[in-house]
Amino acid sequence: MQIPRFESLSVLVVGDLIADRWLYAQPRRLSREAPVMVLRHESERLGAGGAANVARNLRALGAEVSVLGAIGRDANGRELLNLIEGEGIDTSGVELVPGAVTPTKTRVLAAEPRRSLQQILRIDRDPPQPLAADVRARVAARAYELGRRADAILVSDYEYGCAGAEVGAAASELASAGKVAVLDPRSSIDGFPGLTAITPNVGEVAHLALAAGAPAGDLDVPGALASAAALLLRRAECRYLLVTRGNLGMALFGEDLPEGGVAVEASGSGEVTDVCGAGDTAAAVFALALAARATPVEAMVLANAASGVVVMEHGAAVCSPSALAGALATAPGAVRLSGSPG
Fold first, then answer.
1. Residue 147: which pLDDT band, with cuts at 50, 70 and 90?
2. Which of 33, 50, 78, 123 has the fewest CB atoms within 10 Å of its CB?
3. CA-CA-CA-CA dihedral for 232, 234, 235, 239, to nearest 10
C-alpha cells in the first residue's frame, strides 16, 4: 500500500486549542510536611494539545494547515500560538479573547535515573466561563469561509466550547457541498448532521450510544460494537464511523462496508509509552487520507499505522512521512470484524 500524496492538500482544523505543559522531575524523599514524595524539578516544556495537536499532525505529513479556535491572551496561550506558528501552521484565524484562560493540562512525570518516566499527576486549568456566543459565531463564520477553499475540514471537540452548534452548521454545509468533513467528538454528535465521518474512541461510542437510547453493552464484543455503530451512523447521518479501540486497534463502519464493519489490529510491536494524543493522530490521518482519495479502509489502515508510531513517544507526538512509511511496511491489514453479524 502506497502513502497518498499529502503535500498538495489543505486542511482546516477547527476546535479547542489546548496547552499541554510537561514537568519532568526526579524523586528525592518523602516530605516532612505531608505523606507525599518530594520531587526535584529537572525541566519542563509546553506542547500542543487538542485541535493544536491535530494541526501539528497534519502539518507533519506535509499538508497546508489552518487552525481556528479561541485562546486567552495569557502566557500559555501566547506560547502555544508561537509553537504552532513556528511549525508553519496558519493561526491568523485564532481568536485571542481578553480575560480568557487558555485550557491547560499540566502533567508531572518522574523517574529515578535510568528508569522510564511515569506520569504521576495531572492538573487541568479550565476556563471558568463558557466561550461567549459572539466568539463562537465568529469562529463558525470563519470556518465556513476558509473551509470552502480547503480540501478537508476537521473539527476537534474537547468540550471547551469551540466545537458547538455554530461550527457544526458550517461543517455540515461544507460536507453537503462535497468537502471532506470529519468530527472527532467528545460527548455529543448533535448539531453535526451529514458529515463525511466521525472518529470517536470506544469509550465515547459507549457514551454517545447511551445518550441515543441504546442499552449498555460490552463494546469489546464485535456484535455489540456494530450495533452501537449502526445507531450512531443513523443518528449522525454520516457516511463513516471510525472507532479507535486502544490495544484492539480500530474498526470502521459505514457505506459499502460489511454490515458488521471491518477492523485492523493495533499497529506497532513495541511497548506503548504514552497514548496521549493518539486519537488526534488517528483523526488527522484518516481525514487527510480521505481528502487524498484513499478508500475509507485504506484511510483506516494509514491512521492505525500512524497511531502506532505516536504511542511509542512521551507526550502528544506527530508522525512524519518516513515514520509512517516504516510503520506501514509492517502494519496489519484490515479484515472483517470478527464475530460480526452477517
1. very high
2. 33
3. 80
Indicate the number of domains in the chain.
1
Domain housing 135: 10-18+49-103+129-336
What pLDDT band is residue 181 in, cutting at 50, 70 and 90?
very high
Tens digits of per-residue pLDDT, 10-64? 999 999 999 999 999 999 999 999 999 999 999 999 999 999 999 999 999 999 9
Q: Domain for residue 237, yes or no?
A: yes
Burial class (CB in 10 A: 0-12, 13-18, 19+), 124: exposed
Mean pLDDT of 299-325: 89
Nearest to 160 by CA among 189, 128, 137, 192: 128
Whether 280 is catalytic: yes
- Spatial distance between the Cα atoms of 335 and 297, rounded to a whole number of angstroms: 10
Given 16, 74, 90, 280, the catalytic residue:
280
Distance, in Å, from the CA atom of 95 to the CA atom of 74, rounded to the nearest integer, reads 13
